[in-house]
């Protein structure tokens, strides 16, 4: 696939979308923006819902690739998740197939495997203690279930239609880690842009699943498949560790909310407010 230049960014009004709108143009991309919410500082953005198939078809026409961030990003009633994340992602894949788009970078989530026990051991963990990318999927919420669906959809569209996807199981991509759990799964925005760029430009990805994080000293998972795309993370959450642990205490092995990769999503997930 030739290096993509024009990229549709769905979910461009959201937290991660806003960060990537700022960072990805530095890699030479011309971004086409889409979100159901208006984006005040981007008057040319497409205001469309993922349920609007005609609008999606038009939005993907002529782009080289898509970064798909749009959707419900927390837990919600199944009916809402079904419409936005499951049917919405299907609608986008259909539009991409119909318009011949070659590649999608899909924002999956650590919550597709959220019930996986978090690894125990020293810091850093030995390589063989890290959670492998082929660990069985164990969604911790309907939200995580929709990400698991998205990964399967991506596999189907590769096998059946030759549409490539990199599914990125993002940890926590925010300007700074704000919890002890996030020390292990944090992806700095700059590393996020590096990973998306690698996912857009690597050759022959088929359907590749990667974890999305920085090279954290307290890393819980195996970044090999991400590195194989050419991703070279530069950041590490460790400078935030002392302060966060002093404020919040270290992870309690007897607390179920801290025993799994998905953290509090397992016991008390944050609810989508809309
Ligand atoms: P966010 O909630 O801030 O942004 C999501 C955006 O999608 C919003 O602007 C919203 O208006 C839009 N959206 C929701 N439903 C839509 C629909 N039906 N049609 C069109 N647009 C719709 O979420 P955030 O944090 O920016 O995350 C972006 C993506 O990355 C999400 O898919 C999320 O699940 C995923 N992700 C994010 C992580 C993070 O650390 N920020 C971690 C793991 C996954
Ligand atoms: C996610 O999937 C959410 O979209 C994001 O808001 C964070 O909560 C993140 O996971 C996390 O696990 O910290």
From TrEMBL:
Signal peptide: none annotated. Keywords: NAD, Oxidoreductase. Coiled coil: none annotated. Residues 7-174 form the NAD-dependent epimerase/dehydratase domain. It comes from the Bacteria. Pfam families: Epimerase. Belongs to the NAD(P)-dependent epimerase/dehydratase family. This is NAD(P)-dependent oxidoreductase. It comes from Streptomyces carpinensis.
